[in-house]
């Protein structure tokens, strides 16, 4: 079957891979001149399969005033005259219920486990390299109260099958000696030994080569996507800047670009960009963490990628605006120096600002649309790299008419 995948980020490429492996004739279209130039370009690099706490959680509610009033808040809400932003925020608040947040954690945990297994199979089969390491993850806490809350949440996740362990400060430093400078700041940590890390863009570039050379996937990059051409309740072609591209089925994996494209068909996709930032520095041996580290208070993650350290974090609910870029990157560097002052060469750093396509409840949108042969795989937020392979596997099963490993209703547009 001819299938057209819209989007050449990690979600689109893994979707193309799962479909091509089943013998489908796949075309990938993207407006960027290369793969992975959007949210997949320089993200945090962590593959957090068993630590999947959604952003929509009751614990965030007391912090809402800081989001509005403090310019240095890790999570910032900058109001706009934007109906989409306000609609997203209201739905987000509705998702901040204990019962719903717990259910979301379980559903993300299941999807994470499937994604981990699928990624490992892909790496073994295709022998691709992307600074992939099985190094575990340590989430550090500065506040004793937040640490105790995290321990209770951990007990719930462990009961559902997650591999996690609570550590006191000395155990955190023993596990990761590079945290010695930050020891006085810490209250404890949660260790997830099964977590992994890797360079998402390297992964995408390597996967794209495999798709071209082994599976004969056709790439149409630097191609403007104007609209989806339909007849009745079926899609028949993609109208691009050059020509119409027909296919038997279509997958929209365009991240934030999914919203305006599908709105032309009357399909409202609850995805909004959450702006994040990253720094990449050359590592200093002996002072760079071997374990991936998340500073929950600052909403900053650290991952060793070969000879580099990736520092990424912060969340801004402000649309595609990048006017805060210089200030936020400087703040991110200050946060990094606070925890790992000797870990990298901060004077020679690569910087990045990206817009992560997020749903209000933190779960991706996977599955059918009201158009019979038009499918979704988008809205992964900060978990795009983590969940991409599992999402692609689920979607490929659904397109083939097989019963997916997980219940697609949890990730459906109509949920």
Keywords:
alpha/beta; FAD/NAD(P)-binding domain; D-Amino Acid Oxidase, Chain A, domain 2; 2 domains; 9-stranded mixed β-sheet; 6-stranded mixed β-sheet; 27% strand
Describe this structure in words.
Strands 4, 5, 6, 7, 14, 15, 16, 17 and 18 form a nine-stranded mixed sheet that branches. A six-stranded mixed sheet has the order 9-2-1-13-20-19, covered by helices on one side. It has a three-stranded antiparallel sheet with strand order 10-11-12, with no helix packed on it. The longest helix has 29 residues, at 98-126. The chain is globular. It is built from ten helices and 20 strands. With 415 residues, it is α/β, with parallel strands linked by helices. It has two domains: 2-40 and 202-270 and 362-411, FAD/NAD(P)-binding domain (3-Layer(bba) Sandwich), CATH 3.50.50.60; 49-197 and 272-358, D-Amino Acid Oxidase, Chain A, domain 2 (2-Layer Sandwich).
| Biggest sheet details | 9 strands, mixed
The fourth-level CATH homologous superfamily of the largest domain is: D-Amino Acid Oxidase, subunit A, domain 2
Mean pLDDT: 95
Q: At CATH's second level, what is the architecture of the largest domain?
A: 2-Layer Sandwich
Task: Give a brief description.
This protein is an alpha/beta fold and 415 residues long. The chain has 10 helices and 20 strands.
What topology emerges from the helices and strands here?
Blueprint: E1 2-6, H1 10-21, E2 25-30, E3 46-47, H2 64-69, E4 75-77, H3 83-95, H4 98-126, E5 137-141, H5 144-159, E6 165-167, H6 169-175, E7 188-192, E8 196-197, H7 200-213, E9 218-221, E10 225-231, E11 234-240, E12 244-246, E13 249-252, H8 258-263, E14 272-283, E15 292-295, E16 300-305, E17 308-317, H9 325-339, E18 344-358, E19 365-368, E20 374-378, H10 384-399
Parallel strand pairs: 1-2, 1-13, 2-9, 4-17, 5-15, 13-20
Antiparallel strand pairs: 3-8, 5-7, 6-7, 10-11, 11-12, 14-17, 14-18, 15-16, 16-17, 19-20
């Amino acid at each position: 079957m001819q299938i057209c995948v819209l989007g050449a980020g990690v979600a689109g490429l893994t979707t193309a891979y799962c479909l091509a492996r089943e013998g489908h004739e796949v075309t990938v279209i993207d407006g960027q001149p290369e793969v992975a130039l959007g949210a997949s370009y320089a993200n945090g690099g962590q593959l957090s399969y068993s630590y999947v706490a959604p952003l929509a959680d009751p614990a965030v509610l007391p912090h809402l005033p800081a989001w509005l009033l403090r310019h240095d808040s890790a999570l910032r809400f900058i109001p706009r005259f934007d109906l989409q932003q306000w609609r997203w925020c209201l739905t987000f608040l509705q998702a901040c219920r204990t019962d719903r947040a717990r259910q979301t954690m379980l559903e993300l945990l299941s999807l994470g486990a499937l994604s981990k297994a699928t990624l490992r199979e892909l790496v073994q089969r295709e022998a691709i390299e992307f600074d992939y390491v099985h190094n575990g993850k340590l989430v550090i806490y500065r506040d004793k109260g937040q640490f105790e809350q995290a321990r209770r949440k951990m007990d719930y996740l462990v009961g559902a099958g997650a591999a996690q362990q609570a550590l006191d400060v000395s155990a955190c430093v023993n596990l990761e000696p590079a945290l010695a400078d930050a020891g006085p700041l810490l209250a404890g940590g949660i260790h997830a030994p099964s977590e992994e890390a890797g360079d998402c863009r390297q992964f995408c570039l390597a996967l794209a080569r495999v798709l071209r050379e082994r599976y004969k996937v056709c790439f149409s990059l630097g191609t403007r996507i104007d609209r989806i051409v339909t007849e009745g309740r079926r899609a028949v072609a993609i109208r691009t800047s050059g020509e119409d591209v027909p296919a038997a089925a279509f997958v929209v994996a365009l991240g934030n670009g999914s919203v305006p494209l599908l709105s032309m068909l009357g399909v409202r996709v609850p995805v909004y960009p959450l702006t994040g930032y990253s720094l990449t520095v050359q590592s200093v041996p002996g002072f760079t963490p071997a374990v991936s580290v998340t500073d929950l208070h600052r909403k900053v993650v650290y991952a060793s990628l070969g000879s580099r350290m990736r520092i990424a974090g912060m969340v801004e609910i402000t649309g595609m605006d990048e006017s805060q870029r210089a200030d936020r990157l400087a703040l991110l560097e200050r946060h990094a120096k606070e925890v790992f002052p000797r870990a990298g060469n901060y004077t020679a750093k690569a910087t990045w600002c990206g817009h992560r396509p997020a749903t209000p409840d933190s779960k991706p949108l996977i599955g059918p649309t009201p158009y019979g042969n038009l499918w979704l795989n988008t809205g992964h937020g900060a978990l795009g790299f983590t969940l991409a392979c599992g999402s692609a596997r689920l979607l490929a099963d659904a397109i083939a008419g097989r019963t997916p490993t997980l219940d697609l209703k949890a990730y459906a547009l109509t949920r």
